[in-house]
Amino acid sequence: MNAAESAIVCGIPVAQKSMNLRSIILPSIVALVLTPGLARALDIKTLWTKNCVQCHGEDGKGGTKMGKKLGIPNLTDPKVQALYADDELFKRIKEGVNDADGNVRMKAVEGVTDAELKALIKYVRTIVAK
After folding, report:
1. 22-79 pLDDT, tens per residue?
2. Contact present, 62 and 69 (Cβ < 8 Å)
3. Which residues pair with 104 in a beta bridge?
4. Distance CA 20, CA 1 (A)
5. 93: nearest Cα among 71, 113, 64
């Protein structure tokens, strides 16, 4: 150990102090990088609540007044989930759904990124009844 490494600063050996700073700074940087991801995860639940719950219901079963009126499928049913690949769900959410007469059955979700739509689809996949 050389003289610089063995120096004492504020009662802490310099080598140990450097290690402590790294052990504080590195996790702080990691937390700053990961925080937007956590925020997006929370935003997906908000996105679901804001755009989907009125018809699909909080639980995804479509048991709301509007859901019953429109005959919304139960998204927790594995058979219903199997009807749509992720790319089909993406298209339906992004562009909306019309019936055979051109009437809007589900409006397009607006103001969200493709990444958020993909995350929303992952969320929908998690509500399947086991």
Report:
1. 666 656 565 555 545 444 555 788 999 999 999 999 999 999 999 999 999 999 999 9
2. no
3. 98
4. 18
5. 113
- The span from the CA of 81 to the CA of 99, in Å, is 20
Residues 6+ apart with CB under 8 A from 1: 15
Ordered alpha helix ranges (H), 1-130: 3-6, 14-51, 53-56, 65-70, 78-82, 86-95, 114-126
Q: How many residues does the chain have?
A: 130
Instruction: Output the furthest CA–CA distance in the chain (Å, rounded).
Output: 84
* pLDDT tens string 82-101: 999 999 999 999 999 999 99
Architecture of domain 3-126: Orthogonal Bundle (1.10)
Residues 6+ apart with CB under 8 A from 93: 108, 109, 117, 120, 121
